[in-house]
Queue: 4 jobs
Job 1
Amino acid sequence: MKCPRCGWIAEQVVAVCPGCGFTLPKLHVPAHLRLARQDTVNDFAGLFSESEHTQLAERIHTLSEMMNGPLVLATVHSVAPLKPSEYAFWLYHHWELPPNGLLLLIALKERHIESEVGVAWEPFLSDVETGEALQAALPLLREGRYAEGLLIALQVIEQYYQARREARQP
């Protein structure tokens, strides 16, 4: 996981970021952002049609099983007054995702996509690699083709995961 304020990358869970002193309890999250997790696809911004929602949910479910941990997607209209990185970090913990998990967040008003990788997955899927996967999705996201962009990002994430997994096998 990375610190949402300074970007320090943690190899284990820490209560206080040694880079900037950030702590989760100090982060004030307004009531309107304290959203309850619904499923693997949490489309609070209403970006997906029913068929897109189903397609994303099926793809995420397949990838979650392959990677042996939950992948969760959330879309929101805005994360203000927080930064998207802060909100993604907070939401990962608020939804009690385990160390072997991944959260993808789209903040529509901020025009930002963010990821939060659990510490147990860092050896297989780094923050840098998820960032590259999200970058691959940006052209489609900019066109408003959110489901297609996210499917591209999920494909790149799977490719990174598979490559690391194969490299670790004798």
Job 2
Amino acid sequence: MQDIAALEGRITAALERISKGVDRLAATPRPMPPVPTPPAATPGASAGDAALRAQLEEERALVTQLQARLRSLKDREPKGDLTEKIEKLTQQLDVQGLELQRMRRTNITLRDQLASLRQAQMSGVIDPHLINKSLVAELDALRALRLTEVAEMDEILAALEPHLTPTSN
């Protein structure tokens, strides 16, 4: 146990020294080293070096082309479409949230009505009013379930709609 405590102390001390060193390095500004440029091919350079340099230049050209294509794809995506999509999704989430709240309320009411029916049954008194109230609560629960399912289907249809509409080429 003492070994673990000693090792923990040593690790803590080492981490503190590292932290102080990093702070010192961060406090002293250092100029960025210049990017090395590949030296021109010298007559004494091997053919392998020249081939590697040529491949490197090809890769750099390819990277710049890919970066340009990526920028053009990003620019091609209109910002308005993204905000419209975000607004649609937010509205769908709001509708679903409201439907879920309605479901919770009706389930609580249904639970309360079932509890009162159980108590009435245990006491041996059958009250038609309690039965009617419980049936109304059950119907409300079914309606809320139906509205929740409709909201989910609307969300699914909204997600599928762009894939189902024919595109003009």
Job 3
Amino acid sequence: MSMKVKTILVSQPEPKVENSPYFELQEKKKVKVDFIPFIHVEGVSGKEVRHQKIDLNKYTAIILTSRNAVDNFFRIADEMRYKVPDTLKYFCQSEAVAYYLQKYVVYRKRKIYVGKRTFTELGPTLKKYKNEKFLLPSSDILKPEVPKVLEELNLNWDRGIFYRTVTSDLSHLKDVTYDILVFFSPSGIKSLFENFPDFKQNETRIAVFGNSTVRAVEEAGLKVNIMAPTPETPSMTMALEKYIDEVNNKK
């Protein structure tokens, strides 16, 4: 029989918006939700980027897959004293990334192309611009679908590692236990075991987002208890709410 859920640890930074579904879940279901990033991003230096034979002047288009990619592209441009031309084209994986771009450029004056959500969905748009020279600023960890799509389209592109995904120090959690741990990437699972090599699941439920995270959990010998996205629960908060309803309302 599953124990009732009172505490949840989400392995990501706390949402900056007041109306986050996590806060609603906390209120509605009377559970405690903590946010502690298991991984964080560190920018690489301009010198390291030069070592990768990346010359920003030779690119006519930038492919941006995340907010981190946006931040680190403009950070490196600044460090290299590269004046970003108004003619540069931006291909953003999602609306959220495109919207974030406004932090650095005047939106209406730039050529910005937006995908729907996944990188594959950006493919048809990229295909229309075969003559561009693309730069993909990325982390040292890259989803396999990204190079796969770019190779299949036969584009002229280079990848630059502009930042790294690094394991966070979680030693302050050593004696803390949660009813549910929530993970969004294989890197989160890697961080769990780097911080706690002897981690045993016991009564802890594990919630995961995405197939690659499911695989990482299973390969680590752990059990997935809550999974998103599914047709019934497309978001993690919906999956958590459904599970809490099931176990907390049992007579």
Job 4
Amino acid sequence: MTKRCHWPGTDPEYLAYHDLEWGVPLHDDRLLFEFLCLEGQQAGLSWITILKKRDNYRKRFKNFDAVKLARLTDDTIEQLLLDTGLIRNRLKLFGIRTNAQAFLAVQKEFGSFDRYVWSFVGGKTIDGRRGPSRPVPATTPESDAMSKDMKKRGFKFVGSTICYAFMQAAGLVNDHTGHCFRYRELRDSVPTSNPR
């Protein structure tokens, strides 16, 4: 029997996300931006809620093309608030446009969003080395630093807890538990560090 982290339970969509996406190091700017936006949409909700709406977010938010999203009008976003396939929270939906604008500024300054976010972990995945005696934290010094810097740059919904969830999802940290088959696969396939 395949051993996994406990959190995806038995939901097939959640299991597929765990097995194929969560914790895989991302270096594609568009995907990184999508993950950051969706983590922000999750605030106060469960990830499975967002996962089940992800396809609609991609459709309604132009596949997270930041150039297009930065130009969204207020009227367009107000119309999106009527879509039951989205989290109908005004601040969250307007925040996607704000984040697109901040994202483009970061790309211009650093050459890529990838270079910017990975700088917070020294360019290598942090090995969380999670087990029964090492519970997964809600924040870390790295997520604190990322959150502080992103807020200064105008990003919205980027508190340290959201930034840490983003880091886990995008593979900046390997927080699969030690018994999980994905922990070993990811540990053995990418360079890691363990600064703590």
